[in-house]
């Protein structure tokens, strides 16, 4: 009776979560702060026992909101609701990969090709319409962990391949497989999220070294030990104690060698807006220079056609600088003729901290260039 | 000069080969005749590096966060070796606003890289922006800073995701203007710089007409890929010169620990090195 009277006191703005029903039944009320004192006074004056179940409802609501947001980002329900316009963590990208496989079991599978220094699994997505060991195209992103637009673009490429499987990519996927390694340096990537956004190298600790990490793009067995890499473990271009010392590199080497039928190899970096072909370790031109130069020219033209983004192209050593132990020098020497490296947006203004709003435009224009390279490979299988 | 032009690509390759490894190398024997002007491919890395050196000079000397320029494209580049002195680049290039990305007109510049001192730059740019508007923007920003009762403090501009708070844009601009002084002093034919991030900024409230800031900025050095941490002290009075004092990690032969960068220990370690005044 007394509690029912409370319902009439509209100025208190009491929110009944459990309304008064009958004698002995509990009544739950959410009380706005200003009404706390008057309500307590009223209940006590009338001998109505009460207890506080939740001290601060707002705090709980806030916490739940935060958890919901985190959960929504962490576990999107499908690759259609995944946010391609944001940068993601390693866990989010690995979850995305599992979703993509689950949604497209006839096209996409996930391969584990090794483990990092910190024992994280290294995954490669395989896109295949069948056959056995078909000639393949390899794309990797994120070998240098701070180049965030590359992993983000890799995620976008994965989705794009699925979307284009019966359209623009039909011709290619009828004859070839595509392998995509989105996070090529998982340890470094996690480190850029947790500790140092500008971390470039792996996170290996070699004995006697004062500093952590090896430059994975100086660790390949092509001109290893020559000019264009550092022997100082504290350098950002430290080559490592020996070629393939890094498990991240060894994993790809093992994969490429055992697959034996990769025909194009594209390794993606940022920033500088360049499309490069071998060599980096020597000024000697590759035998296929004319063809690679022409393909690069067409790929860059296609890229620029979308948003007018300006790219330069050429061999690594003439266009960027001498670099030894580089990825595509090794892959080219393995016989993978169509070996290219990209340096994506921008040219220095934001550098590694490219605004997330530029992820999709960057991925879109880069895709145009990739289409050219893939089509040329398909039309010139060797 | 058909004969010369045919020989250029080989000579260019030789030049590039002999310029590496960077920074530590002695001045290599140039394949070109000293004293004569040699045309460069506008796409040449050296040309864009020299253009950026000129822009660092301009961005510092204008002392105006609203006038900062970024390189768009090199149109023409020639180089001349001056025996016993250094190498001089003659450049024509287009630019865009550093902050807004809009066309900011073309510039003519000469950049003389010396052996033991910072480069000497002459630069002249076409004015495409309304001078009055720029003055107004700088004035607005200056007065906003000057009227602060509590010192502005901010971190990570841009943040990890490349975002910059609208309110922090002018701070970013001021940092670029100041860092341009540092980058100008450090630039060589073979070493280029970009300001990668403002790690921290703290205002020091003053009673006079100047605004004063302490910055920690990260500079990205190419082709070494090094991230240089610099502690920069800056005083701005709206008109040039911008007064900059700085010290960077490399200046102290600072050995990084395993994690690469330890920003917390940066403060308090450095003595002041007079950058200007």
From TrEMBL, chain A:
Q: Which Gene3D superfamilies match?
A: Metallocarboxypeptidase-like (3.30.70.340), Zn peptidases (3.40.630.10)
GO biological-process terms attached to the record: proteolysis
The species is Phasianus colchicus
Q: What class of enzyme is it?
A: hydrolase
Q: Where does the secretion signal sit in this chain?
A: none
Question: In its keyword annotation, does this UniProt entry include Disulfide bond?
Answer: yes
- Does this UniProt record's set of keywords contain Secreted? yes
> What protein am I looking at?
Carboxypeptidase A1
TrEMBL record, chain B:
Molecular-function annotations in GO: metalloendopeptidase inhibitor activity
Signal peptide positions are 1-25
Keyword hit for Transmembrane helix: no
Statement: the UniProt record of this protein carries the keyword Repeat: yes
**SUPFAM superfamilies linked:** Cystatin/monellin (SSF54403)
Q: Which GO terms describe its cellular component?
A: extracellular space
Pfam families annotated for this entry?
LXN
Mind telling me which PROSITE patterns this protein's record contains? CYSTATIN_LXN (PS52033)
Query: Which parts of the sequence belong to the Cystatin LXN-type domain?
Result: 36-133, 153-257
Which UniProt keywords are given for this protein, alphabetically ordered? Protease inhibitor, Repeat, Signal
What family is this? Belongs to the protease inhibitor I47 (latexin) family.
Name this protein carries in UniProt? Retinoic acid receptor responder 1
Organism the protein comes from: Phasianus colchicus
**Taxonomic lineage of the native organism:** Eukaryota, Metazoa, Chordata, Craniata, Vertebrata
